[in-house]
């Protein structure tokens, strides 16, 4: 009991306004993590972060090393299983994967991945779904070999959520659907870029069914108009793109670049040349602290999610909200895609740029 009280006191000191105190307490926690190989301290830190969104605790959690990586993955998986903590757990996972830890290859074997996929196939909270899709999009280039085991899950998720974009369930606010549409568009690019033969086969099979034709015409077909013919559709095969040997020679950023090469969308294709989001686009998207889409991927103030991202909020998102005023929609860039609603174009540019910041930052350090 005394030890728990001591940990609680140290945790509260982590958020001290005095920098020297925070640094000293952080050092104490890291020393304890080095000497104690059990899960208790990691579990305590995760619980405290989920409750407080403490940035010093987040820093400790996102820099964990073996064997605590397994403890962290197991704890996040446990939290994913509870509806009350699912969004916060996804937020934490997003912060972790954005930093591409040296143990990122373990994501494909951890129980957390099936839990994430189950969430995206069954959850009905649009904010959880949007955040989860962005986590999946960022994770896929780190674990491309997971397609061999989970490919049908990836495609089922795309099919389900693209249908949501058309059906627009009555209980979901329009602006949340805008964010979901943007994330589904990004998922389309990722799946087509990584697994073109299998993905096109899925699209042909799934959208040839009469009940899915409207979704294809209204949601999927406009997405297809903004990609090139993938070379693998000519020279590759469904088996080849799932062969682990195909991925062994590629680093995470190589996979991202390959996905960007097949895009006709300037927001995607410019990333091939290492371009960052333009100042004009950044100015259109001031930071939204209470926006759950202000996940690790939608912090536009630091060019799409660097390590200094502001924590997630458990509150529901509002877009460019001014006290006393209703949420405002965003005016579109002059070069918006004619096949998309203006809000979708703006949000997609923001989301896609944000998705890639952690990767771009990583290239700059390599």
From TrEMBL:
Swiss-Prot/TrEMBL GO biological process terms: negative regulation of cell population proliferation; negative regulation of TOR signaling; regulation of cell cycle
GO cellular component: a single term: TSC1-TSC2 complex
Polar residues compositional bias, start-end: 298-323
Region (Disordered), start-end ranges: 296-339
One Pfam family this sequence matches: Hamartin
Matches recorded under InterPro entries: ARM-type_fold, Hamartin
Descriptive protein name: TSC complex subunit 1
Organism: Neovison vison
Taxonomic lineage from the root: Eukaryota, Metazoa, Chordata, Craniata, Vertebrata
């Amino acid at each position: 009991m005394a030890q728990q009280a001591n940990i609680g006191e140290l945790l509260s000191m982590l958020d001290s306004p005095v920098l020297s105190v925070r640094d000293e307490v952080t050092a104490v926690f890291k020393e304890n993590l080095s000497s104690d190989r059990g899960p208790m301290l990691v579990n305590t830190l995760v619980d405290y972060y989920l409750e407080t969104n403490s940035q010093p605790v987040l820093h400790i959690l996102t820099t964990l090393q073996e064997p605590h990586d397994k403890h962290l993955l197991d704890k996040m998986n446990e939290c994913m299983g509870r509806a009350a903590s699912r969004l916060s757990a996804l937020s934490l996972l997003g912060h972790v994967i954005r930093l591409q830890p040296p143990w990122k290859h373990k994501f494909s074997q951890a129980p957390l991945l099936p839990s994430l996929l189950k969430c995206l196939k069954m959850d009905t909270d649009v904010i959880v779904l949007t955040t989860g899709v962005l986590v999946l999009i960022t994770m896929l280039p780190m674990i491309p070999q997971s397609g061999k085991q989970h490919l049908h899950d990836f495609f089922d998720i795309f099919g389900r959520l693209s249908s949501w974009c058309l059906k627009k369930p009555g209980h979901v606010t329009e602006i949340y659907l805008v964010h979901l549409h943007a994330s589904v568009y990004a998922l389309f690019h990722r799946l087509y870029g990584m697994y073109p033969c299998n993905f096109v086969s899925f699209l042909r099979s799934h959208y040839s069914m009469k009940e899915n034709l409207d979704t294809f015409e209204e949601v999927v077909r406009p997405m297809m108009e903004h990609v090139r013919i993938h070379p693998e559709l000519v020279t590759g095969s469904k088996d080849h793109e799932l062969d682990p040997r195909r991925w062994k020679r590629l680093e995470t950023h190589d996979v991202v670049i390959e996905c960007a090469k097949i895009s006709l969308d300037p927001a995607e294709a410019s990333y091939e040349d290492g371009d960052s989001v333009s100042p004009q686009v950044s100015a259109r998207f001031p930071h939204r602290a209470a926006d759950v889409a202000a996940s690790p991927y939608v912090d536009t103030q630091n060019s799409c999610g660097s390590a200094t991202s502001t924590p997630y909020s458990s509150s529901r998102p509002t877009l460019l909200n001014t006290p006393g005023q209703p949420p405002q929609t965003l005016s579109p860039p002059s070069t918006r895609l004619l096949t998309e609603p203006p809000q979708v174009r703006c949000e997609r540019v923001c989301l896609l740029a944000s998705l890639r910041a952690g990767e771009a930052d990583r290239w700059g350090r390599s």
